[in-house]
Amino acid sequence: MAAYVLVSETDITTAKGCWTALKSSAARNSNLSASEASEPTNMVPTMQRATRTFVRQAVALALLATLGLLASGAAQAAPRATSRCAPTHVRGTPFSIVVRRGRVSCGEAQRVVHTFQKGGGVEHTAGTTETWTVDGWDCLHGATATECFKGGPSYPRALEALEAFIQTRLPAAPIGSVLTVHERGDALQVSARLQDPVAAQYGPGQTPKEGYRALAVFLNLTNNSYGTISSDANGFTKIIGSDGLTYNFDPYVWLGSTAAQCGEFRFGEYSLLPESRESGCVVYLLPETVSVQAVQFGTYLEPEAQWNA
Predict the structure, then answer these.
(1) What's the mean pLDDT when you consider all of the chain?
(2) For the chain, what are the domain ranges?
(3) Which pTM value belongs to this model?
(4) Alpha carbon distance 21, 24 (integer Å)
C-alpha cells in the first residue's frame, strides 16, 4: 500500500534551502586552510563548524527523506558486519560458519548448514546451477565453501548470506591429556577433565530444566612463555555433543556459591603471568539424551585444541 505525505510549498523551499546550505558547508569544510588544520588554537572554532555542519546535514537529510528525495536504499539499516559462529559438526566433520550479511543468529545459521550438509532441503535446478531450499534459505556448494542466502535472487545480491567451511583438523588427544595452544605467539599448555554430571547451583529465579543435566569441564592452564596470557574460558571452551551440535557455557548454572567463581576463574576470565598456573571450570547444560563427544578450547574465536571423550 502506498503511503502519502502532505507537503507544503514552504516545506519544499526549506528543504531546498537546507540542501543548498549542506552543499555549501561541505565545500567550505573541504577547503580548510593548512593553518586551520594544524594550529591547536583553531580546534574550537573548527569543532563548532563541524557541529553546525552536522546539524544542517541532519535537518536536510530528514527533510529530504520525508519528501522522498533520497533513494530508499539509503533509509535502510546497514547490514551487520561479518561475524563468526561456533562450528557445527556433521558426521564428525566440523564446519566453521561465517555470517556475511544480515542479522542472522548463530543458532539459525548452524541449523541451516547442519541440515544442508546432512542432505536435507528441496533441490532446484536452473540451467547448470543446483540449489537446495532449507527453511527458506537457498544453499549451494560453492567453489570454496557452502553458500546459503535469503532475500535475493543469488548469493551476491541477497540481503542475508552465510558461508560454511570445513574446519582444519585440530590437535586432538584423549580427555586429560596436555595440549599446547598459542595466544599472540605465547604458548599455553592446557589439560581438560570432564565431570558429567555435576550437582550445580542455579541462578535467582532459575530452576533445573527438565530433560537436561549439568556438567563441567575442569581446565588446568600453564603459561610457559615470557608474556602474560589473558582470555575467557567461558567464551572459548565448547562441548561437541553426540548430536553434532556445539554447546556453549550456561551463565545461569554454576558450581560455587556465586556465578563469579569456578575454581580460580572469575566469570570465566583468567590472566596468567609468565611461568604461572591457574585452574578453573566451565559449566554446561546438555540434554539427557546427548553425550559428550569432544571438548574444544581456544584463546580467541577459533578453537585450537580438542579432547575426545
Answers:
(1) 75
(2) 9-75, 83-166, 173-308
(3) 0.48
(4) 5
